[in-house]
Each structure stands twice: as C-alpha cells, then as structure tokens.
Design brief:
341 residues, alpha/beta, Metallo-beta-lactamase, Chain A, Rossmann fold, 2 domains, 7-stranded mixed β-sheet, 6-stranded mixed β-sheet, 8 helices, 19 strands, 24% strand, globular, RibonucZ/Hydroxyglut_hydro, ligase activity, exonuclease activity
C-alpha cells in the first residue's frame, strides 16, 4: 500500500487528501518546516508545528489559514493517523508520520542528527517506508563536532578584532543564523544582523525561542561602530553593495559545502566553516537504520548515488524527484530576504 505518491503538485497522501510540502498551490498542505523550498505561498490550508507559526506567517503572509500542532500529538483525517516528530533541522522542523490500516510511512523533510541546543533533537520514527533527503549523501561529508566549529568561529572573530576588522559570517536567515548566534561568544563584542535575520529572530521569539540580543544593521549606525564586531548576513548579501559599509572586513561562510576544495575560493571568501543543518553521511545512514524501514525513497541531493548505496546494503531504495533544494552553494536571493532588508 502506498501512503505517499509523488505527483506534479508534490508529495500526496490520497487516503488523507493532503500534500506534504507541495511545490504547487493545493487545498491542504502539511508543512515540515518553514524554509522556502518546503513552505510555499498559495495553499488554502496549512498544518505545521507550533514553533513554526510566526515564521510561516512572516514568510507566507499574516493571514494564511494555519493550524499548528505539537510533536507526538496525533490527529486523524479520513482514517489516517498523522503526527509530527522532531527532525532536528531547524526550529519547528518535523518528520511527518502517516499510519493507515497498519502501514506506516514517514516523510522526514530535511533533518540533522546532531543536537544543536536550539531545535528539538532528531528522533527516529519506526516505519515501513522512509522518505529521506540526501543533500550530503556521500562519504566525503562527515562533520566534526559542532563545538569544535564554534571554537574556530570565535577564534576567527578574535583574530579579526586584532587586525581591526569586522567579521562577516554568511548563513541562512532561518536556522543557520540562529544556530550560529546561539553559539557565539557574546563577550567578545557586538553582534549585528541583516534585516532578514532580525525579522526572523523576532518571529521566533514570538514562538517562545530564546535568542541573544543583537543589533540590526541600519544606515543610521556610523561605520566605525561595526569595527571589531561580528555581522550575520544571509548568503544573498555576498558581493553586494550592502557589505561595503563594514570595510575593512573579513568574510566567512558556514555551510556543509565548505567541505569541498575550492568552494571557499569560488565565493571569494576569506574563511569557510563546515557547518550544516543537514545530516552528514554517517547521520543519514544512522537515521535510516534506526527507522527499521525496508523501503526508502531518496529525494534531493546525491539521490542516485545514495539510493544505489542503500540498494547494495539490501534495502529497497528508489530515487524520488522533488523540487526541494537542500543547502545551496550559490547565494541565490530569496523573496523574503529581498523584502526584509
């Protein structure tokens, strides 16, 4: 029995009459998390986790028809038992469990298995069929403990202060920016944020997420004020006139793609920190094994290679075409970042 079909509109559960993270407007949408490739405008009804509420309203519109739900609290629609479970990707990110007539499927959305002290940690969900991302589904992608990465970031900030420079770190305005902020040594100096990050922080605070205080970058702040401080900005701000006000500065990107030789050079960055909100090779394999699933659908990322590897391990694995993007190496501007500067 198939509980999820891959259709032109998105992942569809015919028994419940609902789509998961649809990429075209539909009547009823279940949303795994608030990133733009999973939560799109135009749906008539949204179901999401409670800590995604204000970020979704910020990005999709204040008056969207949104119902929220807690983790591990099932609802029943047309005989389908639906529940949300922590994915560990960003605040509010969820795996969607569907149960119908004894069959259990789980759509994981995006996930990571290392706790980040901000989002609720990933919890494996036992199922017959698991839908997994594969953004970093190759053995080359193996993350160091995040504590080591943040020690490197804080030391880099100190070194830039000694050189009388501003430190600029690029990371997604939702998820990566808050994770970095939560782990910075705030005693080192002032922390400034791009407008897109500022608005996202304020939305998350409305959902009960505690974050350190920061200063929003503005035209009214004298350029000299930024000296020695750290600026958090989305990737879309790279190589734009916006960053000129911080000169002299050093730039860095926090991304899993910084694993690749040449990625830092390609973006003309001074430093690259390997930090991702997606599971690495070991995390993907551990998560799939913990589900006990014998059938796996592999979505965005290295899906061909990863599905082939899972097949060789004895699982029934398939590639699934979606419009999900995972973590992008290219600093493409998003709609919400353009609007919220």
């Amino acid at each position: 029995m198939s509980l999820i079909e891959f259709t032109p509109q998105g992942m569809y559960c015919p028994q419940a009459g609902m789509y998961i993270d649809p990429w075209q407007p539909v009547d009823k949408a279940i949303i795994t998390h608030a990133h733009g490739d999973h939560a799109r405008r135009g749906n008539k009804y949204y179901l999401a986790h409670v800590t995604s509420e204000h970020v979704l309203r910020l990005r999709l519109g204040e008056h969207i028809n949104l119902q929220t739900i807690e983790y591990n609290v099932p609802i029943h629609i047309n005989g389908v038992k639906i529940s949300f479970h922590p994915a560990g990707h960003i605040v509010g990110s969820s795996q969607i469990r569907l149960e119908y007539q004894g069959e259990i499927w789980v759509a994981s959305g995006d996930y990571k298995t290392e706790p980040d002290l901000l989002s609720q940690s990933f919890e494996p969900v036992r199922c017959h069929t698991f839908i997994s991302e594969s953004t970093f589904g190759l053995p080359v992608y193996q993350w160091k403990p995040q504590s080591e990465i943040f020690d490197e970031i804080n030391q880099w900030w100190k070194d830039n202060q000694n050189a009388d420079k501003v430190s600029i770190v690029f990371g997604y305005s939702l998820g990566k920016a808050q994770r970095i902020l939560q782990n910075l040594d705030t005693s080192l100096g002032k922390i400034f944020v791009h407008g897109a990050i500022w608005h996202t922080n304020e939305a998350l605070r409305q959902d009960g997420i505690l974050l350190p205080e920061v200063i929003r970058v503005s035209k009214e702040i004298p350029n000299q004020t930024y000296r020695g401080g750290l600026v958090l900005a989305p990737p879309s701000a790279m190589a734009t006139p916006w960053i000129r006000k911080f000169a002299p500065y050093a730039t860095a990107s926090a991304s899993g793609w910084m694993t690749l030789r040449g990625a830092k050079r390609r973006k003309a960055l001074d430093r690259g920190f390997v930090l991702s909100d997606h599971a690495d090779w070991n995390g993907l394999n551990a998560a799939i094994e913990a589900t006990g699933a014998q059938r796996v659908y592999v979505t965005h990322g290295y899906k061909s290679a990863f599905a082939r590897y899972l097949t060789e391990k004895g699982l029934e694995a398939y590639e699934a075409d979606t419009l999900f993007e995972g973590e992008s190496l290219d600093p493409l501007p998003s709609l919400e970042e353009n609007e919220l500067q």
